[in-house]
Amino acid sequence: xxxxxxxxxxxxxxxxxxxxxxxxxxxxxxxxxxxxxxxxxxxxxxxxxxxxxxxxxxxxxxxxxxxxxxxxxxxxxxxxxxxxxxxxxxxxxxxxx
Length: 97
Description:
Elements: H1 7-18, H2 37-41, H3 64-76, H4 81-96
Helix pairs in contact: 3-4
């Protein structure tokens, strides 16, 4: 038996089908005022700041029980579990080298 869609979900799908897609060149920006120098100077950078020592994002698969234990230990030590995992791996690599 198929799962019944909610009304909002069905409406959203209909809306997406009825939207006319246009290219960026076809968009009329003439009614948007230019930013002043004051507005531009008051802006701030968006996103993460550049850091030469930034950690690399990876994906790792862990047993759910191990992850739960890791989170409990991190909570006990009052630190984020990713930071604790980093420390534990760093110590293990140093000892193994």
